[in-house]
Amino acid sequence: MGLTRLGTYMQSPTPSITESSTPSQNGNSEVLIRRMSSLVASLRDAPMTEESKPLFTAAARELEAMPAELVSADRAMCLLLLSRYACLSGNAYAGLEPAMQAVAIAKTVGDSLLLAKANNALGVIYLETGSYPDTVTTLTAAITAARLAGDDNLEVSILSNLGLAHQYAGHYSAAIPCYERAVEKSKESNPTSTIRSTALSNLSLAYLQLRDFQSGLLAAEEAIAGLSAPLDVHDRITRTMAECYYARLLLEVRNVSVAKERVALAREFAADASDLSRLTAEMTQGLVEVYDPASRDVGLSRLQRTVNESRRGAQSALRDALAMMVRGYE
Question: What pTM was estimated for this model as a whole?
Fold first, then answer.
């Protein structure tokens, strides 16, 4: 799974407001507009972990209570952050409605960049809830909007997500070109290290599933090198995933000792990243333990626990947990 892809819509664009025209309503609207701006800032800075649940729950209630006719980019960003939190907490279905609302607002505001971010987020939610046709359609629309907005970095992220959609559907021949184009474009546009490393990390996962281990190891190593010192939660999520994929690739070439070192790093980064990242690191730890005869039973028990926990969350997490459980028994 490549939930690092969710971090690309975190910057809030300049608000564009639609509001009623009476003086009293306008005064109240200004207060609400400032409050939405404050909500964006607080949600953006909050960790995507269980400890932030009260903040996101309160923000969702507050946003719902605001008049529907108050339409702004900040409102869309609040909705995207709520959607992102739901997805990274393992409840992708809860993120569907806010992501759809954000797309509708972006269309009303007429902001191509905001629309690209919103469609990208919605596409990820469709991906995590198992709607492959909706995922491809929505992410394709996101790419069109990103190109219209001239945001090459966002286009790289969306291409990575589109590759994941094909990959989850088992269409590897369609996934690899998406990742390769994302990596190629990232070289052209000089994106942030997180964006480039996400594309490389996802590419390593595709190579793992195609059993092209050497190519996968090279991609994972390059992804990790780009995030040698993760600065924020998005970097830590990306680094966690890259380390997990790297560990799994190392297991396939029977380098168990180094795989143990890499999964230890993954768990360290995941602790301050997101609940879904922690779960991914935990299932990878279980698989690493299975490869060591001394800890095989412990590893199988850990994998079973992650399968049970994954059943309550995103489909991609359950898919990965089951795949690793099968690999463990093999």
Answer: 0.72
